Amino acid sequence: MEVSLKRAAEILAKANNIIVTGHIYPDGDSLGSILALSEALASFNKKVQMYIDDDIPLVYHFLKGAENVQKPEGKVQADLLVVLDASDDERIGKVKSITDAPILNIDHHISNIKFADYWYLDTKAAATGEIIMALLNIMHAKITPDIAAALYTAIATDCGFFRYANTTANTMTQAARLIEHGAKPNIIAETLETKPLNTILALKEVLDSLEFYDDGKVATITLLPELIEATSTTEGFINYPRNIEGVEVAVMFKVVEEGSVRISMRSKEVDVSKIALQFGGGGHKRAAGCTMPGDIKAVKDQLLSAIHRHVNSGQMRFEQ
Ligand code: AMP
Ligand code: MN
Ligand code: MN
Description:
Helix content is about 35%, strand content about 20%. By secondary structure, the protein is of the alpha/beta class. It folds into two domains: about 5-190, inorganic pyrophosphatase (n-terminal core), CATH 3.90.1640.10; about 195-315, Diaminopimelate Epimerase, Chain A, domain 1 (Roll), CATH 3.10.310.30. A six-stranded mixed beta sheet has the order 6-7-8-9-11-10. A five-stranded parallel beta sheet has the order 2-1-3-4-5. The two termini are about 30 Å apart. Bound molecules: adenosine monophosphate (AMP) and manganese (II) ion (2 copies).
């Protein structure tokens, strides 16, 4: 059932024992939203447990409470499972099976499949963190400096630090409020931008893998398992093909293991969420992803021909 944010706050108020989760391969938005909502719920004396079916990337360990996020195992007692920043229950991995509690999903992905018992979806929000900010306001929750840092991270990472097309006046207004509540933009930006040397060294090889298709409108990078092993993160790599003059769609192929390729797409105009959906993934118009089975050559052929149709048809373009 679709619910208003006010109704979502009431559902949260009624529950006492709450599990909060987000998508696998956690990013700043999913993790920041989980940490912020969980801290706010705990301040109302709720029992809150945070679960993510994945490791939390080192770069986000500076966020307070990240150390309390658990990996799912066995069954967990709860009144409510809150799923943040995930458009599909497949995206929460094993967390799906640790409880039979009703699900409240709060999300901003256009590809959301409305799988939850209750869902609040705002595809205009730049980040789930922006929605959580409005929710905390309705709940009259105190925005502590830790909540402010978590939500600032959530919002800033999903809108490319206020540069992408999803950045709105509301995005910046909420970010400004978070700064008033103690978020430190310079510290958060510097922490997230600082990369281990292994990542910069891996970047040299990543750039060697650059390929172009469709008269330079499509640019790809490809990371094989060895290279993925060698770097602590691949965050930001997609921006290199994305930022090349004339490139309309950028793709990162990550061969996480033989026979499985994780794909990230970024675009200027083409709706890449539709391409990702075609292959069982999802995302936003200008940033989407999917995981495809098969060897890298076959996967590349399949995905690039789908992109080729979208880049050249003009039909998938959308209004600004
Ligand atoms: P990424 O390229 O991993 O930064 O993801 C870009 C956007 O697409 C994010 O909003 C992701 O949540 C979404 N996304 C990535 N992979 C998938 C997937 N396999 N299924 C659904 N959404 C995805
Ligand atoms: Mn996310
Ligand atoms: Mn998000």
